[in-house]
Amino acid sequence: MKYIIGIIQPDRLDDVLQRLTEKEIHLVTVSSVVGRGRQQGIAEVYRSHKEPGNLLRKVKVEIAVNDEYVEPAVDAITGGANSGNIGDGKIFILDLAECIRIRTGEKGNTAIG
Ligand SMILES: Nc1ncnc2c1ncn2[C@@H]1O[C@H](COP(=O)(O)OP(=O)(O)OP(=O)(O)O)[C@@H](O)[C@H]1O
Ligand SMILES: [Mg+2]
After folding, report:
1. Can you give the pTM of this predicted structure?
2. How far apart are alpha carbons 29 and 35 in whole angstroms?
Protein backbone atom coordinates (compact mmCIF):
# COMPACT_ATOMS: atom_id res chain seq x y z
CA MET A 1 0.00 0.00 0.00
CA LYS A 2 1.14 3.53 -0.75
CA TYR A 3 0.12 6.96 0.45
CA ILE A 4 0.20 9.49 -2.35
CA ILE A 5 0.36 13.21 -1.62
CA GLY A 6 -0.10 15.64 -4.48
CA ILE A 7 0.42 19.37 -4.02
CA ILE A 8 -1.23 21.12 -6.94
CA GLN A 9 -2.52 24.46 -8.15
CA PRO A 10 -6.02 25.08 -6.74
CA ASP A 11 -7.48 25.67 -10.20
CA ARG A 12 -6.40 22.16 -11.30
CA LEU A 13 -8.34 20.33 -8.59
CA ASP A 14 -11.51 19.69 -10.62
CA ASP A 15 -9.54 18.18 -13.49
CA VAL A 16 -7.48 15.98 -11.17
CA LEU A 17 -10.59 14.72 -9.34
CA GLN A 18 -12.31 13.95 -12.63
CA ARG A 19 -9.32 11.97 -13.86
CA LEU A 20 -9.13 10.08 -10.58
CA THR A 21 -12.82 9.19 -10.89
CA GLU A 22 -12.25 7.95 -14.45
CA LYS A 23 -9.65 5.57 -13.03
CA GLU A 24 -12.11 4.44 -10.33
CA ILE A 25 -10.17 6.15 -7.57
CA HIS A 26 -12.90 7.71 -5.46
CA LEU A 27 -11.56 7.87 -1.91
CA VAL A 28 -9.56 11.03 -1.42
CA THR A 29 -8.71 13.72 1.12
CA VAL A 30 -8.39 17.32 -0.06
CA SER A 31 -7.11 20.30 1.90
CA SER A 32 -6.19 23.89 1.30
CA VAL A 33 -2.57 24.51 2.20
CA VAL A 34 0.11 27.13 1.76
CA GLY A 35 3.63 26.36 0.71
CA ARG A 36 6.60 27.33 -1.33
CA GLY A 37 8.76 25.54 -3.86
CA ARG A 38 12.19 26.29 -5.15
CA GLN A 39 11.24 29.77 -6.40
CA GLN A 40 10.45 30.47 -2.74
CA GLY A 41 7.04 31.84 -3.56
CA ILE A 42 8.34 34.73 -5.59
CA ALA A 43 8.37 33.91 -9.29
CA GLU A 44 4.92 32.37 -9.69
CA VAL A 45 2.90 34.95 -7.81
CA TYR A 46 0.96 35.60 -11.00
CA ARG A 47 -0.58 32.13 -10.69
CA SER A 48 -1.32 31.71 -7.01
CA HIS A 49 -2.75 33.95 -4.35
CA LYS A 50 0.12 35.00 -2.10
CA GLU A 51 0.02 34.66 1.67
CA PRO A 52 2.41 36.26 4.18
CA GLY A 53 5.87 34.71 4.34
CA ASN A 54 6.15 34.16 0.60
CA LEU A 55 3.72 31.29 0.87
CA LEU A 56 1.37 30.47 -1.99
CA ARG A 57 -2.02 28.83 -1.80
CA LYS A 58 -2.02 25.27 -3.03
CA VAL A 59 -4.31 22.27 -2.76
CA LYS A 60 -3.17 19.01 -1.18
CA VAL A 61 -4.68 15.80 -2.50
CA GLU A 62 -4.05 12.67 -0.43
CA ILE A 63 -4.86 9.17 -1.62
CA ALA A 64 -4.17 5.82 0.04
CA VAL A 65 -4.10 3.04 -2.54
CA ASN A 66 -3.22 -0.57 -3.13
CA ASP A 67 -0.06 -0.91 -5.20
CA GLU A 68 -1.81 -1.45 -8.54
CA TYR A 69 -3.44 1.97 -8.23
CA VAL A 70 -0.24 3.94 -7.74
CA GLU A 71 0.41 4.45 -11.44
CA PRO A 72 -3.20 5.37 -12.31
CA ALA A 73 -3.29 7.83 -9.41
CA VAL A 74 -0.02 9.46 -10.41
CA ASP A 75 -1.20 9.65 -14.03
CA ALA A 76 -4.42 11.34 -12.94
CA ILE A 77 -2.63 13.91 -10.81
CA THR A 78 0.05 14.71 -13.37
CA GLY A 79 -2.44 14.70 -16.25
CA GLY A 80 -4.72 17.14 -14.47
CA ALA A 81 -2.11 19.38 -12.90
CA ASN A 82 0.67 19.66 -15.49
CA SER A 83 0.51 22.93 -17.41
CA GLY A 84 4.25 23.03 -18.05
CA ASN A 85 4.68 26.07 -15.84
CA ILE A 86 6.59 26.56 -12.61
CA GLY A 87 4.48 25.87 -9.56
CA ASP A 88 2.52 23.02 -11.18
CA GLY A 89 3.19 21.04 -8.04
CA LYS A 90 4.74 17.87 -6.76
CA ILE A 91 3.85 14.33 -5.86
CA PHE A 92 5.21 12.45 -2.86
CA ILE A 93 4.74 8.69 -2.52
CA LEU A 94 5.11 7.05 0.89
CA ASP A 95 4.98 3.42 1.96
CA LEU A 96 1.78 2.90 3.92
CA ALA A 97 2.10 0.59 6.92
CA GLU A 98 -1.57 0.08 7.70
CA CYS A 99 -5.12 1.21 7.00
CA ILE A 100 -8.04 0.52 9.33
CA ARG A 101 -11.71 1.12 8.60
CA ILE A 102 -12.96 2.30 11.96
CA ARG A 103 -16.57 1.13 11.52
CA THR A 104 -15.78 -2.51 10.74
CA GLY A 105 -12.26 -3.03 12.00
CA GLU A 106 -11.18 -4.17 8.52
CA LYS A 107 -7.49 -3.73 7.85
CA GLY A 108 -5.06 -3.50 4.95
CA ASN A 109 -6.09 -4.10 1.35
CA THR A 110 -9.78 -4.56 2.12
CA ALA A 111 -10.01 -1.42 4.24
CA ILE A 112 -8.28 0.86 1.80
CA GLY A 113 -10.80 0.95 -1.04
N1 LIG B 1 10.64 19.52 -1.06
C2 LIG B 1 9.41 19.91 -0.69
N3 LIG B 1 9.00 19.68 0.56
C4 LIG B 1 7.76 20.06 0.95
N5 LIG B 1 6.87 20.65 0.15
C6 LIG B 1 7.24 20.90 -1.11
C7 LIG B 1 8.53 20.54 -1.60
N8 LIG B 1 8.61 20.91 -2.90
C9 LIG B 1 7.42 21.45 -3.21
N10 LIG B 1 6.60 21.46 -2.13
C11 LIG B 1 5.24 21.95 -2.07
O12 LIG B 1 4.70 21.86 -3.37
C13 LIG B 1 4.25 23.14 -3.80
C14 LIG B 1 4.47 23.24 -5.28
O15 LIG B 1 5.84 23.13 -5.55
P16 LIG B 1 6.41 23.58 -6.95
O17 LIG B 1 5.57 23.00 -8.02
O18 LIG B 1 6.60 25.06 -6.96
O19 LIG B 1 7.82 22.80 -6.90
P20 LIG B 1 9.22 23.27 -7.47
O21 LIG B 1 10.20 22.29 -6.96
O22 LIG B 1 9.44 24.70 -7.16
O23 LIG B 1 9.05 23.01 -9.03
P24 LIG B 1 8.85 24.12 -10.21
O25 LIG B 1 10.23 24.58 -10.55
O26 LIG B 1 8.19 23.37 -11.30
O27 LIG B 1 7.99 25.22 -9.66
C28 LIG B 1 5.03 24.11 -2.96
O29 LIG B 1 4.34 25.33 -2.84
C30 LIG B 1 5.11 23.38 -1.63
O31 LIG B 1 3.89 23.54 -0.94
MG1 LIG C 1 8.13 26.13 -7.82
Report:
1. 0.94
2. 18
